[in-house]
Amino acid sequence: MKNPHLFKLKQHLAQYPIVEWYRRRHLDRKTFKPEMLDGADTVAIDWPVDLPKPRIGLVKDCGKMLFTQPYAYWPRYERFLKNNGFAYEFYDIRRSDWMAQADRFDVVVWRTESDPASQYEAENKIRILEMMGKKCLPSFDLVWSYEDKIRQAHMFALHGVPTVPTFISYDRDEALTYVASAPLPIVSKLATGSGSMGVELFRHRDAAERFVRRVFAPGNPTYWTYLRQKDYVYFQEFFEDAAFDLRVIVIGDRIFGYYRMRPEDDFRASGAGKVVKKEIPEEALHIAVRTARAMGAPMIAVDMIHSPRRGGFFVIEASISFQIDTHEQLKLGDTPGYYRHEEGRFTFVPGRFWVQELALRRFLETTYLHRG
Ligand SMILES: Nc1ncnc2c1ncn2[C@@H]1O[C@H](COP(=O)(O)OP(=O)(O)O)[C@@H](O)[C@H]1O
Ligand SMILES: [Mg+2]
Q1: Per-residue confidence (pLDDT) for residue 110, from 0 to 100
Q2: Atom of ligand 1 nearest to the CA of 244
Q3: Is the CB of 187 under 6 A from ligand 1?
Q4: Which of 193, 221, 237 is the last residue in one of the domains?
Q5: Residue 316 CB–ligand 1 contact under 6 Å
């Protein structure tokens, strides 16, 4: 999904019954099918016999955006729960009785979605669930910075993660002074956006200045039909020589990853669909491990761009959930697998995995077994 106009049109059309009818008729092609899980290695957890297993509430994701249903996380989580003998039930968390329903569970597993409306709900409910003593995947700390480039930038700065120089301000005059003298072009990002749809380039100062004035007055319209960018700017230095966006996925000591190549006619790689799977330089693996530690997530995808001129990898964002459409998230030549991280060294191990299963195992291990 790269086209903000098409995305906006889809949001508008969704309100009409005829569109809903049409989508339901064609749902079958786009729904999850159990055989989609086949072919991945089994992920087993080593659970002590004398420790009762927690009761799991599993939330079904991808209900809003029907086209994403084949990539839903819940069937992969469910596969892990079934294979490892956990008692689980589906948890319909969107309903008004969600607090009463929570009584049935010790743990809530919920792939929260990335749009601003879903995040508002997720932050609210996970905060309360944790106050009720439930363990949540993701935790409140993690949903807090998920899909929010501003919160992530603060976390990266706090933990010394190497990033592209970024200017974030909620001060109109400071923002105007910045655009009057910053090197051109200037990258501008919406705090919450994905697939490059909230990322723009300003080549001219007057356009950037008009943008700032709009942001600090009525707010600047975004590709979300219900959201304006209001009273903040997120500007970034433009790395003209970044040929790809490298995604490194860290789950404890297992590391996966792939490259999203920049298309010929656009500087934005994410959402363009040009994926290349091949070996990842050690420097990038080290940066990803450091970032993952800073964020403290069972699974995290650390996205970075590489600038030959500036000599290194620079993190642009980190996501606790992202589209996963295959059990081959790293490939060396024709062999799928992962890098095993041990005391600063990385060794390739072949295998096929639904990384959601590894993430859920990691979450349960760190929460209940104090491993890792
Ligand atoms: N500072 C930058 N300089 C050059 N290219 C960038 C920069 N920041 C992002 N990009 C490109 O734009 C794409 C989208 O940016 P990103 O911040 O990852 O937004 P999104 O959340 O929409 O993926 C990236 O995949 C990368 O190719
Ligand atoms: Mg991105």
Answers
A1: 98
A2: 27
A3: yes
A4: 237
A5: yes
Residue 151 placed within a domain? no
Q: Give the pLDDT of residue 372.
A: 65
The residue to which tokens 């706090």 are assigned: 158
Look at the pTM and tell me if it is higher than 0.90. Answer: yes
Instruction: Give the count of domains, the chain.
Output: 3
Question: How far is the centre of ligand 2, averaged over its atoms, from the C-alpha of 102 (Å)?
Answer: 33
| Phi and psi angles of residue 199, each rounded to the nearest 5 degrees, phi first | -115, 125
Residues 127 and 11 in one domain: yes
CB-based contacts of 288, cutoff 8 Å, min separation 6: 248, 250, 255, 257, 302, 304
Q: Which atom of ligand 1 is nearest to the CA of 195?
A: 22
C-alpha to C-alpha distance for 305 and 299, rounded to whole angstroms: 20
Residue 235 contacts by C-beta under 8 Å, 6 or more apart in sequence? 166, 167, 168, 175, 178, 179, 182, 186, 187, 188, 189
The token pair at 152 is 């992530």
- Pocket of ligand 1 contains residue 125 by CB under 6 Å: no
Kindly report the average pLDDT of the chain as a whole number.
95
Ligand 1 atom closest to Cα of residue 262: 27
**Residue 316 Cα to ligand 1 middle (Å):** 7
